[in-house]
């Protein structure tokens, strides 16, 4: 029986040329799998047909936008996931979902290998392969760009030689990956970290410096999940999509950073995540209102480790699942409304309300009616500082 390679297919030049290239190199039949995670662009049916025209024996397209929003973006939101305190895990969230559908296609179509278009310098090779190892350890992986030094100029020449129905002339100076949760841009002149991004880098966000009227939005959460905007019940996908539009129009969510890649190098990345930035900001503030202090402090440690695991490609790891369980427990009371003003590149919280609020006005106020017994504070402070006082006396005694 002929081997079959299940290829993560985008519809672009590199993965289109990879179909006949893999067939020649491996002698296997190629099954193309394209997954819509909200990246926009071409119609899925056009992409499906192109894969067949390039030589795929089977071509599958999956509309996974709602799945991506509910099962990947929402867990990241509940974890306040920001790698290095800034990056909201855009590409890192989509890779395990795509790997899940690649593994499913391998079962359906008898695939023995899985192929992806990642290079040997990036994080995504690890994310795909670590996910596949957890989902189906028997699958073998082939990565043309990494394993066969398959460069873009070689792909262009190969596509022209084979007469593939793909545009080989369009060349973007950037490497771009985008989905519902945001957009990542790298390479080109951005590789010089002294160069400032120009406006043509951005697509999801408008120039935050342009004059415009502010946009006020009220986000309703239930158990840590957004369920409504301005009182309108919506799905997670609809909420993120609408906030991408509204916050993006205000220039919210631009990030320019040098980050630590898993493979050990530093990389300059420019991100746009208007919806994600707005939602994470709102969710964090609602946690401030509804989550008890020690739980909140420990959750920040959990959130950081969760973000690192997902960034490193370990979505399906035992530790990630265990942290999910902790986060799920801690989100039980994270319900209520957050009012925000979107303007000038910022999403600013202006109001909070929750039936599960731990904020007690009578304890917090400094005016008449204050129910906080300040007479108890003197003894508390003395006992709280006693270990430091004793240690200081010891240090003075010993010189």
TrEMBL record:
Residues 174-390 form the Arginosuccinate synthase C-terminal domain. CDD domains: ASS. It is an enzyme of class 6 (ligase). PROSITE patterns: ARGININOSUCCIN_SYN_1, ARGININOSUCCIN_SYN_2. One of its GO terms (cellular component) is cytoplasm. L-citrulline binds at residues 87, 123, 127, 175, 259, 271. Residues 4-165 form the Arginosuccinate synthase-like N-terminal domain. One of its GO terms (molecular function) is argininosuccinate synthase activity. Keywords: Amino-acid biosynthesis, Arginine biosynthesis, ATP-binding, Cytoplasm, Ligase, Nucleotide-binding. The keyword tRNA-binding does not apply. Its main location: cytoplasm. GO terms for biological process: argininosuccinate metabolic process; L-arginine biosynthetic process; urea cycle. It catalyses: L-citrulline + L-aspartate + ATP = 2-(N(omega)-L-arginino)succinate + AMP + diphosphate + H(+). It comes from the Bacteria. ATP binds at residues 8-16, 117. Its EC number is 6.3.4.5. Pathway: Amino-acid biosynthesis; L-arginine biosynthesis; L-arginine from L-ornithine and carbamoyl phosphate: step 2/3. InterPro entries: Arginosuc_syn_C, Arginosuc_syn_N, Arginosuc_synth, Arginosuc_synth_CS, Arginosuc_synth_type_1_subfam, AS_cat/multimer_dom_body, Rossmann-like_a/b/a_fold. The keyword Nucleotide-binding applies. It is found in: Cytoplasm. L-aspartate binds at residues 119, 123-124. Belongs to the argininosuccinate synthase family. Type 1 subfamily. Homotetramer. This is Argininosuccinate synthase. The lineage of its organism: Bacteria, Bacillati, Actinomycetota, Actinomycetes, Streptosporangiales. The gene is argG.
């Amino acid at each position: 029986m002929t081997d079959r390679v299940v290829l993560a297919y985008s519809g672009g030049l590199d993965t289109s040329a990879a179909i006949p290239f893999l067939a020649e190199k491996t002698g296997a039949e190629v099954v193309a799998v394209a997954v819509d995670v909200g990246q926009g662009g071409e119609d899925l049916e056009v992409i499906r047909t192109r894969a067949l025209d390039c030589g795929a024996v089977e071509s599958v397209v999956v509309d996974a936008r709602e799945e991506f929003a509910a099962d990947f973006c929402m867990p990241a939101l509940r974890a306040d996931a920001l790698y290095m305190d800034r990056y909201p895990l855009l590409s890192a969230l989509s890779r395990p979902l795509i790997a899940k559908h690649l593994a499913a296609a391998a079962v359906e179509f008898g695939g023995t290998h899985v192929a992806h278009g990642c290079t040997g310098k990036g994080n995504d090779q690890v994310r795909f392969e670590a996910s596949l190892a957890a989902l189906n350890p028997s699958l073998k992986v082939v990565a043309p760009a990494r394993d066969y030094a398959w460069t873009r100029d070689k792909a262009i020449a190969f596509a022209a030689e084979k007469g593939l129905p793909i545009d080989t002339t369009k060349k973007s100076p950037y490497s771009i990956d985008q989905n519902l949760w945001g957009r990542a841009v790298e390479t080109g002149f951005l590789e010089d970290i002294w160069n400032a991004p120009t406006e043509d880098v951005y697509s999801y966000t408008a120039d935050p410096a342009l004059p415009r009227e502010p946009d006020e939005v009220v986000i309703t959460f239930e158990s840590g999940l957004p369920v409504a905007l301005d009182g309108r019940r919506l799905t997670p996908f609809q909420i993120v999509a609408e906030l991408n539009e509204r916050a993006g129009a205000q220039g919210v969510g631009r990030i320019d950073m040098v980050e630590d890649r898993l493979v050990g190098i530093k990389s300059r990345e420019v991100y746009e995540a208007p919806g994600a930035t707005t939602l994470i900001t709102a969710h964090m503030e609602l946690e401030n209102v509804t989550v008890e202090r020690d739980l909140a402090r420990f959750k920040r440690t959990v959130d950081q480790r969760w973000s690192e695991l997902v960034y490193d490609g370990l979505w399906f790891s035992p530790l990630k699942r265990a942290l999910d369980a902790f986060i799920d427990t801690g989100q039980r009371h994270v319900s209520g409304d957050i009012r925000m003003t979107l303007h000038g590149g910022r999403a600013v919280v202006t109001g909070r309300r929750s039936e599960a609020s731990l904020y007690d006005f009578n304890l917090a106020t400094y005016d008449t009616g204050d129910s906080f017994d300040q007479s108890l504070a003197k003894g508390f402070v003395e006992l709280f500082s006693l270990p430091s006082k004793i240690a200081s006396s010891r240090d003075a005694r010993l010189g």
